[in-house]
Amino acid sequence: MSCFQLSSLSPDCTNMASNIHITETLHSQLRRKSLYFHNNGQKISPWHDIPLYADRKHGIFNIVIEIPRGTNAKMEVSYYITKEISFNPIMQDIKKGKPRELANIAPFRGYPCNYGALPQTWEDPNSIDSHTGIAGDDDPLDVCEIGSQNAQCGEIKMVKPLGAFAVLDEGETDWKVIAIDVADALSEKLTDIGDVESHLPGLLESLKMWYCNYKVPDGNSPNSIGLDGKLMDRQYVKSNTLEELSDQKQIRIKPHRSLPSSMGTSERLSQSKLCSSEQPVNPPVANHRTTLEHLFRHRISTKIIVSYCTKRSNIIH
């Protein structure tokens, strides 16, 4: 079997991240920093506006790094929308009024991998996962990047998936995709989940152990690994988990949490978009297109639009 070569990526794929820059803002009211993403001078959402695929032909995906390996701050793509916060910046999670820090779980210090999110995916809390039988955790699909280099928060990496395991966390399904940066020296040697144990012995079991126990220091019960602890291979991830959680045959409108009633309908709806893995959402313009405008622009059927309006009526009203 021939290995994927980084040189085989198209110039458009290799230059994608260079077009995006990040600014840091300190929200005085929230007392925490926010990392905002920009493309050609306009704010974009790292969740909705960055394409899922870097190179669909070769099965290469973009991920947005939230927590670099070896760090403890619980950074994550935000979905709490207010007048001050929009476009899903990366922010530090708050627990009991304080910025959340993750405990060290042996044998690791800080986070055990470069942890990030797959844009344009969503583990739906209102839908039962067809593999685990438990609903999703209301977040983008998580990725554990296991390359040799420590990443930076907000960095966009091109990775190839190797496999996955399902964490059952407080009654929710939380898939962890194992992947490696295509630019990593080990990338050519890793083509599937079985190769990881050969070149990085013990890592996968340590990761599963870490995810089972990382909330215990906060007083929570241990998590468990679904599917009897089984590690799913690369093909399973591509043909099942990824396809299901970025399925464009179904409408994927992410209803953001805690939408303030003081915001106008147009402003509130502009923060939820239909994501397309084939064509990334265009960066928002100054007056923010609403979700309904977005649906019509992408020629979504009248039946789906009516269904959307019905389901979202509780937000609008």
Describe this structure in words.
Helices cover 19% and strands 25% of the residues. It contains 8 helices and 15 strands. The chain has helices spanning 11-15, 193-199, 203-213, 234-245, 265-269, 291-297, 302-311, 313-316, and strands at residues 20-27, 32-39, 42-44, 53-55, 60-67, 75-77, 90-92, 94-95, 98-99, 114-118, 141-145, 156-169, 172-181, 224-225, 232-233. The longest helix is centred in the last third of the chain and has 12 residues, at 234-245. 40% of the residues are buried.
Write the layout of secondary structure elements.
Blueprint: H1 11-15, E1 20-27, E2 32-39, E3 42-44, E4 53-55, E5 60-67, E6 75-77, E7 90-92, E8 94-95, E9 98-99, E10 114-118, E11 141-145, E12 156-169, E13 172-181, H2 193-199, H3 203-213, E14 224-225, E15 232-233, H4 234-245, H5 265-269, H6 291-297, H7 302-311, H8 313-316
Parallel strand pairs: 11-13
Antiparallel strand pairs: 1-2, 2-3, 2-7, 4-5, 5-10, 5-12, 6-7, 8-9, 10-11, 12-13, 12-14, 12-15
Enzyme class: hydrolase
Keywords: Hydrolase, Magnesium, Metal-binding
Pfam families: Pyrophosphatase (PF00719)
Secondary-structure content class: alpha+beta
Mean pLDDT: 77
Helix content: 10-25%
Taking the alpha carbons of the first and last residues, their distance comes to: 56 Å
Shape: globular
Number of helices: 8
Query: Element order, helices and strands?
Result: HEEEEEEEEEEEEEHHEEHHHHH
GO molecular function, one term: inorganic diphosphate phosphatase activity
Enzyme class: hydrolase
Family: Belongs to the PPase family.
Region (Disordered): 247-286
What would the keywords be for this entry?
317 residues, alpha+beta, 5-stranded antiparallel sheet, 5-stranded mixed beta barrel, 8 helices, 19% helix, Pyrophosphatase_sf, EC 3.6.1.1, metal-binding, magnesium ion binding
